[in-house]
Fold:
Amino acid sequence: MGDTVRERRRPRQEPTPMPRLALYAVVVCVLAAAAAVVSFWQGSLIGIVWVLMAGLSSNMAWYYIRRDRMARSSRG
Structure:
């Protein structure tokens, strides 16, 4: 009698190699670094803001990558 219920099986999805937020943070970091180079090349001191933004987004990327690794290792 118990065999009349069929289990729904979800197709296995491959884990993403990097969390999506970390990927976005890396993209922002690269773009901010490029904007800083262009700003300094043109002689503008606004490049300092771009350097700070690149540093912040770099730290965010590391945070999300480490958080994902910790979550994966605790799952088993």
